[in-house]
TrEMBL record:
InterPro entries: 3Fe4S_ferredoxin, Fe-S_cluster_ET. It holds the Pfam family Fer4_13. Keywords: 3Fe-4S, Electron transport, Iron, Iron-sulfur, Metal-binding, Transport. Its cofactor is [3Fe-4S] cluster. Ferredoxins are iron-sulfur proteins that transfer electrons in a wide variety of metabolic reactions. The keyword Calcium does not apply. This is Ferredoxin. It comes from Actinokineospora iranica.
């Protein structure tokens, strides 16, 4: 995740709210869970795919 590229679209927080949130001050992504469990990993990957700024990378 690279907050510098984030444009604050919020797709990550909508797609995977247990993993991502938005900073109330600037609207950019906040990482809540750096190592999501296996059942959350698919949501993290989907959030990365939906990110319009490609600010999220999930291995």
């Amino acid at each position: 995740m690279d907050r510098e590229y984030c444009v604050g679209a919020g797709m990550c927080a909508l797609t995977a709210p247990d993993i991502f949130d938005q900073d109330p001050d600037d609207g950019r992504v906040l990482l809540l869970d750096a190592r999501p469990s296996a059942h959350r990993h698919a949501a993290a990957r989907q959030a990365a795919q939906l990110c319009p700024a490609e600010a999220i990378a999930v291995p």
